[in-house]
## 1
Amino acid sequence: MRNTTILHEANEFVKNGDYEKFLAYCTSDTKWVFVGDRILNGKEEVRTYMKEFYLEPPVFNVEKAIEEGDFVMVTGEIRLKSAEGKYEHFDYCDIWRFENGKIAELKAFVIQKEP
């Protein structure tokens, strides 16, 4: 299965709020780098992040997905519900690295849009 297909399949679980099924698509030592913000090491830190920031499943729109070798680059928009109950809007560019069909690393560039 192509890595782009795997990523889209995994993200369907995020859209439905089933974060544990999404995490099954990740290596145990997955590393997520949010440039200029934080680095998450391992599934447990990603799980904690999702519980904290995905109060409701995020709403995202993929604009482009480009695959080359073990990498998939995705651009788009994402909306996250804040603790105050308001949606915050972001543009993103994610670079995903795969190992043996699993998500091994994410490097994410995320920019908040003005309200």
## 2
Amino acid sequence: MDARTEKEKMLAGELYQAFGEELFQERQRAKALCRRFNATTEEEMPARDAVLRELLGSCGANAFVEPGFRCDYGYNIHVGDNFYSNYDLIILDVCEVRIGHNCFIAPRVSIFTAAHPLDAPTRIAGWEFGKPVTIGDNVWIGGHAVINPGVKIGNNVVIAAGAVVTKDVPDNVVVAGVPARVIRELE
């Protein structure tokens, strides 16, 4: 019998059940912090920054996120210096999400680490898993883009608006489309 907790299995990217009390309470904490963050006004920048830093696993200098922001746990999200996210960012962070320095995210971007088994009975029984997402330095992600579980995005990359990124992206390229593919190399 596996003596590990569901959280330990979740963080390891293995099948786990999200219904247990520990993970439920951690999601409730993240929801409360997101609600507090999203309720701040433009006159409350220090309070907004403090809540963001309490929510995220780590947060570099000059990080700014426009409300509304949603995440599952928060502590699995790590952003570098000079990070900017426009409105309505969603990060499902059952596994780690690492975002480098000088990254800009347009409105309504979704970053998913959470995934579900293809096998219907396993999925219906409540099993899920996650795969970490890594985004390099100097990346710009266009509006309504989706970053899928397990994707690694290189440095100096532009993700076009509406792109659905399903596989790794090398350095110095522009990707676009569904699924996203390299459409241009950058110098």
## 3
Amino acid sequence: MSEENKSKSFDGRQMPADVEAERCLLGGILRDPEVMGVAVMAISDDDFFYLERHQLIWNALCSLNKSVTPIDPVTLSAELTKMDKLDIVGGREYIFELMESVASSANVPWQLEHLRSKAVLRKLIRTSSEIIRQAMDPASTPDNVLQDAERDIFAIADNQVRNTLKSIDNFVAPLLERINNRREGGITGVPTGITELDELTNGLQNSDLIILAARPGVGKTSFAMTVAANAAIRYGKNVAFFSLEMDGIQLAQRLLCSQAQVDQSRLRNGKLNSDEIKKIIAAVTPINQAPLFVDDNADLGIMELMSKARQLKHKGHLDLLIIDYLQLMKTGKEENRAVAIGAISRGLKILAKELSIPVIALAQLSRKVEEKGRERPQLSDLRESGSIEQDADMVWFVERPFVQTHKDEDRYKATLIVAKHRNGSVKDIDMSFVPEYTTFYDATDQQGMEGGDEDYQYGSDDEGGGPQVADFGSF
């Protein structure tokens, strides 16, 4: 196909392109090789030039630039000869013609932006055409087509002109800010509200995949909700909580009782004293105003999760993603369960890197941890796939001795075992757990412990002198 006919290659209509601007850009570089540095930072892919001959010339210019060879028509012709492409581009005559076609390189910045917009439009056309082809394929599934379409469209949006070459002072200033934050007790990542954990990790860092694991009933959902509430309500971080196990009403109830410090059982029964009612009403406003998003779709798959997360991130509404829990996620066509779970964990790690956010995925531990003589869970106890351990940047285990001992002295004790920390040290972190609120606190935080006994629950300062049916009035 000739270059003249190539311009009408989509449905008989001309593809977005400006061949004359391409000629002027290449001629400007030959006229003033100093602008090659600007062009290299702006041109990120092979589709930038529409005509093949211009792409070949650009590749030769890049080779000269890389080898620190002076750029002029003679050296460019020699490089194209070495590449055996000189005749394809039109010979030495075309090279000199390019340089003679422009008087200066003054318009190079405009030409770069103009040609970039044309290249983006061509990518959108080709991507749309591929989406149509996949959708017409009888073997395709809607989930796969949507996933590929969304990935490709977001890739086009993200791969705009990126100037990654920066002066060193662009990096020194943020570094000094981080150092200053650490000196003042601040953190650089998403805070969890658990002081010792935040000190260990300096906050949950972008691109990290964190696995939070425990046996059923130990409190992994409660700990995840504690982190979500602290990040969203106390620190104003945008948090998305995907729950495959509990519905949104149940999560809201836990959150409300946690923030109000009211016994869940009394809320369920509707027999609250006036003090508890006041606490619940006071807790509603900060919860409603918090940037916390909940999805309780129990049939969630990795593709749908990635799609929703991308949409939130694109709108600027995502700093932390939590999934409860990994083994409940809908898998693809993999027959082997371990392979399927491995694909999900890899997908979550890719998502964390792509969106540059921390991702917490809850996971079940195998029954081995319940064997007698086992003092603590191990990384090998993660159920169904070694890929989970491999993909994770951190692995946390939640332990509550009361689950095994049922002793009163163990009732409020809890430990977070940081069993893997790719960018730091491992550690056991003591915490407090108040089962009435299903909430975790710092081990030294007495506020959370207040009200764990019956005297508080049935408050003697109530005007009615005891329990009463909850009446929220206009609330």
